[in-house]
Each structure stands twice: as structure tokens, then as C-alpha cells.
Amino acid sequence: MNNKTILITGCSTGFGKLTARLFQSKGWNVIATMRSPEKETELNKLPNVLVTRLDVTEPQSITDAIIAGMEQFGAIEALVNNAGISGMGVFEQWDDQEINAIFNTNVYGPMRVTQQVLPIMRNQKEGVIINISSLAGILGSPYSSVYSAAKFAVEGLTEALALEYAPFNIKTKVIAPGAYETNLFTTIPHRILANGDQQIRDYSDKMLQKMNATMEQMRQQGAQESDPQEVADKIYQCVTEETSVHNVSGSDAEAILQMKKSMPEDQLMKAISDMFVPELHTA
Ligand SMILES: NC(=O)c1ccc[n+]([C@@H]2O[C@H](COP(=O)([O-])OP(=O)(O)OC[C@H]3O[C@@H](n4cnc5c(N)ncnc54)[C@H](OP(=O)(O)O)[C@@H]3O)[C@@H](O)[C@H]2O)c1
Q1: Which of the residues 38, 72, 211, 254 has the least number of beta carbons within 10 Å of its own beta carbon?
Q2: Edge-to-edge strands of the sheet including 170-177?
């Protein structure tokens, strides 16, 4: 029986919930954190799971969750910075509020949690930190520029910490998942799509149509819906086995990574553009 402890952010749904379940089933103690633990009905019924409140934008809630976890389990051997939000729109449509929200949750959030967990791991002389990036963190993604910028930041932060904290026996790794059906896309605020001048709003509409058409075409050509459990399994592998610092999950992410490694940049840009960027007929 493993009696190690993992703290995971964003366990209310999606990858976070699946990861909490998986580690619990493998005998880990799980500090399953979420913004609204009062709504949780499943994880809090499992043995060795502490469901507790943590909002990555609120430093005190991070401190409180860590104290509660340490009181119950006495150690934190692994941390998964999973909580995240997404967004879409042509860059000029993004306002400060939306840009700040993306960076606050997806970049400053993992930074805050990591800074509070690192002293515990240093004291234990061991630890593994997994950050969840995205395919948009390895390839600049049209219509998701700000999300992409945030996830590139997560990739860079991870690489730097992997080097900086190796002497403390703390491993830091990142996983870039491809596209998976979770709540991530259904919770995107569409408010900003009304921003911008007429040309930008028209361009934005066309880009959304083009992206939807490409997705539909891929489905018709037999592209399978990826199973989000793959991401939980990849997290488990990265925590428990020797892996590289940068990891991907999903056949789409693997294919794009391969294209990025093997194609000249202009060919890669053209291939991505053909899939997602509409033509602009200006007078
Ligand atoms: N699904 C994909 O295709 C995909 C692809 C690449 C990367 N990712 C990344 O994977 C991670 C998990 O996403 P998912 O797909 O599992 O989506 P999801 O089902 O929407 O889960 C996101 C989780 O993050 C939580 N969260 C949001 N803001 C938070 C905050 N301020 N503090 C704490 N928790 C917060 C949400 O909690 P609430 O219930 O309280 O909102 C939810 O539990 C994210 O980092 C996302 O960027 C997803």
C-alpha cells in the first residue's frame, strides 16, 4: 500500500477529478482541492481523500488547503497544477479583464501553489510537480492567443524549475494535452466576441466557422473523441516513473509535436493556417 500524498487543483470536474480518483484507487492519499467543495458528492465519499477548498487566485485559500492536507496526511510528495480556464477570440477582442483572468488562473495560479508547496518538498527532500499545459502551449494557436501565451509560460516555468530544483530532488514536469471533451470549452465566456470593430468581428465569426468546419471534417474522417482518462493516466505515469520534462497526451498533440520537430517552419505554419485561418477578402 502506497501512503504517499498528492495535492491536485481543480478536482471538481475533468482531468482533475479523474486524476484524484486514479491516485486514490492506487492507494495514494489525495488532497482533492476545488473552488466549491460543498458541491462535491463523489470524491468526499472515498477513503484517504480530503476534499478541501482551494482557489488558485486566492493565496490564503492555498495556505489553508495545504495546512489542512498536512494536518491530515503529514506530507505532500506530489502536486498537480491542473486548474485552468480557457478563452477564445481574435487578439484585438481580448480585453484586460479577460487577459488577466487567463493569466491569473493559468500562470500565476500554478506559481502561487508551487511556491507554497516547494518548502514542504525541500523539507521532505523529495517531490514531483506536474503542470498541465496544452497543445496551445507548444504551438501558437490562432483564436486562442492569450490562452496559448499563458500555456507557453507554463512550459517555460516548468523547464526552469526542473533545472532549478533538481538539486533538491524535486522533479518538475509538464504535460500538454491535445483536445479532450471536458467542461473546459463549455465554460468559455463568449462576451469578448462582441468586442472589436466590424472587420475584426466578421473575421472572428469566420475563424470560428472555419475551426468548427475543420473539427467536423476531422470527425467525418473518423477522428475519435479522445478519452480524458488518458490525461489522468499520463499524470500518474509522470508522477510515478522516470519521464522527460516535457510530455504530451493524445494522438493530436503527438502528431503536432512530430510536425513541429520534423517540418520546416513555413510548411508547419501553412498547414496550421489551412486548418484554422479563414481567407480575408478585403476590397
Ligand atoms: N480539455 C482539453 O481539451 C484540454 C486541453 C489542453 C489542456 N487542458 C488543461 O487541462 C486543465 C484541466 O482542464 P479540463 O479540461 O479538465 O477542464 P474542466 O473540466 O473545465 O476543469 C477545469 C478545472 O479547473 C477549475 N478551476 C478553474 N478556475 C479555478 C480557480 N481559480 N481555482 C481553482 N480551480 C479552478 C475548475 O473548477 P470550477 O468547477 O470551480 O470551475 C475545474 O475543476 C486546464 O489547465 C486546461 O487548460 C485541457
Answers
A1: 38
A2: 49-53, 29-34, 5-8, 78-81, 127-132, 170-177, 246-249
